[in-house]
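Retro notes, structure queue

What went well: the backlog is down to a handful. What didn't: a couple of records were mislabeled last round, so from now on we paste the full input next to the output in the thread. Example, using DNA-binding heavy metal response regulator, putative from Alcanivorax borkumensis:
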Amino acid sequence: MNNLSILLVEDHRQLAQTVLEYLEQQGATVDYAGNTRLARELVQEHHYDLMLLDVMLPGEDGYSFCQYLREELALDMPVIFMTARDQLEDKLEGFDRGGDDYIVKPFALPELVARVSALIRRQRKEVTANTLQIADLELDPARQEVRRGGQRLKLSPTAFRILRILMRESPKVVSREQLEHELWGDLVPDSDALRSHLYNLRKAVDKPFDEALLNTLPGVGFSIQEMTEIAP
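Corresponding output:
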């Protein structure tokens, strides 16, 4: 974790201190905010590689703040939610608002570090200057940009990686197991995490347009291709 810059947003001071000290022992540089007001200032003044974000915060909650980062600031840094809320609907809400991972309190600090490292490693893996294109959909790995019909699309970092995998493998079908392994390795959150990210990806890539490109083959996997390529 050397040279990683992390923003920790957590209102429980004792927990925040414990997490901060442990991450710094692993070589990371950590800034701390006890509320989203201060976090808003910090993200506009500094670059961070990743954010650890509590859900239950005073004033604005973590879900709303994450959505603000994605939609208003267009920040694509990975976000890991930290919360005691462990119900499925809570996890889906976190992914829907732009989160990339979700760890339930109380958690083991080595697991948190493993999730941070895995998320950063997969975000940085295989970044090249080669633009991928299918129909009017373009993905630029170097600029971390996706456009369809010339319109820039807003994707979370995880949705961006899913799309890149599917476009890289197109027109082949990518299994759920392959997607999960490339995204999370052996630290897969749960089956609904991938489903939620795919739902948000489809909403961004297909819903505003006439032609759907993202295809689901039940029990087989996922692919992205022009409909003319899969017509009987």
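Agreed that this is the format going forward. Reviewer comment attached to the example: The chain has two domains: 5-124, 132-230.
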